[in-house]
Write a structure and sequence with these properties.
Blueprint (H helix, E strand, L loop, with lengths): L1 E4 L5 H13 L3 E6 L4 E6 L15 E5 L19 E3 L2 E3 L6 E5 L6 H14 L3 E3 L17 H14 L3 E4 L6 H7 L2 E4 L7 H8 L5 E4 L6 H13 L5 E5 L17 H8 L4 E3 L1 H5 L2 H13 L4 E5 L17 H13 L17 H39 L8 H12 L8 H34 L1
Parallel strand pairs: 7-8, 7-14, 8-9, 9-10, 10-11, 11-12, 12-13, 13-14
Antiparallel strand pairs: 1-3, 1-4, 2-3, 5-6
Helix pairs in contact: 2-3, 2-10, 5-6, 9-10, 11-13, 12-13
């Protein structure tokens, strides 16, 4: 049951409603929005308080049909924004990237990864201290010593930390070192653990169970919320289906479905959702496109030699490419590292501005040269005539070989080859467009 108070309801009127609810042996959860206050009533035999609508300051009483109450959007019409350290997740706060290794393996690995993902724009550092694995012979994580390494990485980079807690007895230790408590897929139905993290002051990242329905997932969130912790983030990480082409079936439709049903922020984990490095980037972009509030990405300095889930971990370069693409599509906004509290000196900022101005000039000249090259390519097409495709493969191969063997610089031969291959492709596209345009009148005339 939801009790919606009138705009401008007084503290005394809200307290009176709460008093009546608790007087009848029920629980009252007060949620204060910008315009009005909503009170969730939880318990059995709600008919005992069916008269709440007659109390002063009450606008309406709504019966909720879903089995989850506090997680429902009726209870909390405004979307929840959860603070993880100094980072906000949800309610229009922008796409938050949580990145790092599946498991903490060493101090060097953790610090190296933390600095890299922060530089690329990650807002939260992930790292597993305990790793529940299907096989008892697989690497189970470093345990409690890993928490100290995560704390050190947080101190050096300013990134808040998320890590998985696997037992209720660990919550106190995690509270000291971790900013976001993760409940893994295998523990989504561990009700003792859910109540324990519900009594923590730290926010909770709740992963969807291996075969859980959305209602079951939200009921698991209800355990945390009803235990007193209002800061829950849901994480879609794929479910088990008959499909074997991927590790799990990443259910991206869950994101818009959840937006209709709950006010809680929603994060997607494409690493566990696919289990394949090549699929992480495309599914991350798709998750951002359907409205996820954040992404949980596994990144490792040496994925082939990772002790846990190397097949689905991105290398540093691959993570950088993904972040570039997310920025290019405007899913990730600039300025994320500012949350760490670190600032570059003013002189450095001035130098960066001057260098970027030079880059702008070079880019302008490149654009002009590319257009000039395209004009010449079109002239070649016209001289050869419509019956010739104008594609000189031998000459093109020589061009690419010259590009790859050019003067030494920061670009590798492979990168230079990629650039010139793209230039040749767009020139060919321009030639085809002109040829098609020249042919069109003749085709129409013959018709």
């Amino acid at each position: 049951m939801i009790v919606v108070m009138r705009p401008g309801a007084t503290r005394e009127q809200i307290a009176q409603v709460r008093h009546v609810v608790e007087e009848h042996g029920l629980e009252a959860f007060v949620s204060e929005g910008e315009e009005r206050t909503v009170i969730g009533v939880v318990g059995t035999d709600l008919d005992r308080v069916s008269h709440l609508g007659t109390l002063e300051g009450v606008e309406q009483v709504v019966r909720i049909t879903q089995p989850y109450k506090l997680a429902s959007i009726e209870h909390h019409p405004e979307r929840t924004r959860v603070r993880v350290g100094e980072v906000s997740v949800g309610n229009g706060g922008g796409l938050v990237i949580m990145a790092g290794p599946c498991a903490v393996e060493s101090r060097e690995q953790m610090l190296q990864t933390a600095h890299w993902v922060r530089r690329e724009g990650a807002r939260v550092l992930r790292g597993g201290a305990f790793k529940p694995r299907s096989s008892p012979y697989s690497f189970q994580g470093m345990g409690l010593p890993a928490l100290a390494l995560l704390s050190e990485a947080r101190a050096e980079t300013g990134l808040p930390v998320v890590s998985e807690v696997v037992d209720a007895s660990q919550v106190e230790a995690f509270d000291e070192h971790v900013d976001l408590l993760q409940v893994g897929a295998r523990n989504m139905h561990n009700f003792v653990l859910l109540r324990a993290v519900g009594q923590s002051s730290k926010p909770v990242l709740l992963k969807r169970g291996l075969s859980a329905t959305i209602d079951e997932w939200l009921l698991a969130a209800e355990y945390v919320l009803s235990s007193g912790n209002p800061n829950v983030i849901l994480c879609e990480r794929g479910i088990r289906t008959f499909e074997t082409a991927t590790r799990n079936t990443l259910d991206l439709s869950a994101v818009p479905v959840l937006r209709r049903q709950t006010h809680l922020p929603i994060v997607v984990d494409p690493s566990h959702g696919t289990g394949q490095r090549s699929l992480v980037g495309p599914m991350a972009l798709a998750a951002a496109a359907v409205g996820a509030d954040g992404l949980l990405i596994e990144v490792h300095p040496d994925p082939p030699n990772a002790k846990s889930d190397g097949d689905q971990s991105l290398s540093f370069a691959e993570f950088g490419d993904l972040m570039d693409e997310l920025r290019r599509l405007q899913f990730v906004r600039e300025g994320a590292p500012a949350d760490s509290g670190q600032r570059a000196p003013a002189a450095a900022n001035g130098d960066v501005a001057a260098l970027r101005q030079q880059i702008d000039g070079v880019d302008g000249r490149l654009v002009a040269l590319l257009q000039e090259r395209a004009v010449l390519a079109l002239q070649v097409q016209r001289v050869r005539g419509l019956d010739s495709h104008g594609h000189d493969v031998a000459r093109e191969r020589e061009l690419l070989e010259r590009a790859a063997s050019g003067d030494a610089g920061p670009l590798t031969p492979e990168e230079l080859t990629t650039v010139f291959s793209a230039v040749v492709r767009v020139s060919r596209a321009a030639q085809r467009r002109e040829a098609a345009a020249d042919e069109a009148p003749g085709i129409e005339g013959r018709a």
